Amino acid sequence: ETGVTQSPTHLIKTRGQQVTLRCSSQSGHNTVSWYQQALGQGPQFIFQYYREEENGRGNFPPRFSGLQFPNYSSELNVNALELDDSALYLCASSLPEGAYNEQFFGPGTRLTVL
Amino acid sequence: GESVGLHLPTLSVQEGDNSIINCAYSNSASDYFIWYKQESGKGPQFIIDIRSNMDKRQGQRVTVLLNKTVKHLSLQIAATQPGDSAVYFCAEPNNAGNMLTFGGGTRLMVKP
């Protein structure tokens, strides 16, 4: 098990609502990345946060936003939920120094939009 | 652009047999690849990686082979065990190292 934790584990929302997902990074890791994993597919990169600022973004609309706090924990916010937002949302923490560093994934939050 | 994909969505093997999971990539400049294992209800877990200056890398019961000529990599699992049942992804970081691109995944099912 990695030291990355996510909450909640499951969530059900209705279309048009807003949701906030939370992630605590592994001890010592100052970088957090978020991924969306639709059923039966590989994870897709949403964005990464480093030193409380966005450090790269995938092909997701602005209604997907995030925050990183001084303790390196992070939130993913999704506004105006759509049915296609139903997915497993994964958080991964890492150290950014140098070239690519191993990303340690949490167990994910399963979001269902009805 | 970068893309990582997999040949087979499901692989069923007998316990004790060897498993081979394949992955194709399109960017000939890609220089680093990672295999992840994702068990039900868990996030992806790092298994093994390989850089493009290598053709083969071995871990504990796992071997990754890289064929740059045909832009193909494979994950070989020796003496497959029930605990190996999971979805396996190949993944590739971008040049900035801040984003992973995953393939669609192969589900490995181990029959007792």
Polypeptide structure, described:
The complex is a heterodimer of chains A (114) and B (112). By secondary structure, chain A is mostly beta strands. Chain A has no helices and eleven strands. Chain A has strands at 5-7, 10-13, 19-24, 31-37, 44-50, 53-57, 64-68, 74-78, 87-94, 104-105, 109-113. Chain B is mostly beta strands and 112 residues long. Chain B has strands at 4-6, 10-14, 19-25, 32-38, 45-51, 56-58, 62-67, 72-77, 86-93, 100-102, 106-111. The radius of gyration of chain B is 13 Å and the shape is globular. The model of chain B has no long low-confidence stretch (mean pLDDT 90). The chains are: A mainly beta (114), B mainly beta (112). Chain A binds chain B through residues 2, 4, 31, 33, 35, 40-45, 48, 50, 55-56, 58, 90, 92, 96, 99-108, and chain B through 32, 34, 41-46, 89, 91, 93-94, 96-105.
Approximate helicity band of chain B? under 10%
Number of helices of chain A: 0
**Low-confidence regions of chain A:** none
**Biggest sheet features of chain A:** 7 strands, mixed
Shape of chain B: globular
Distance between the termini of chain B: 41 Å
The radius of gyration of chain B is 13 Å
Alpha-beta content class of chain A:
mainly beta
List segments of chain B where confidence is low: pLDDT < 50 over at least 5 consecutive residues.
Answer: none
Walk me through the topology.
The complex is a heterodimer of chains A (114) and B (112).
Chain A: E1 5-7, E2 10-13, E3 19-24, E4 31-37, E5 44-50, E6 53-57, E7 64-68, E8 74-78, E9 87-94, E10 104-105, E11 109-113
Parallel strand pairs in A: 2-11
Antiparallel strand pairs in A: 1-3, 3-8, 4-5, 4-9, 5-6, 7-8, 9-10, 9-11
Chain B: E1 4-6, E2 10-14, E3 19-25, E4 32-38, E5 45-51, E6 56-58, E7 62-67, E8 72-77, E9 86-93, E10 100-102, E11 106-111
Parallel strand pairs in B: 2-11
Antiparallel strand pairs in B: 1-3, 3-8, 4-5, 4-9, 6-7, 7-8, 9-10, 9-11
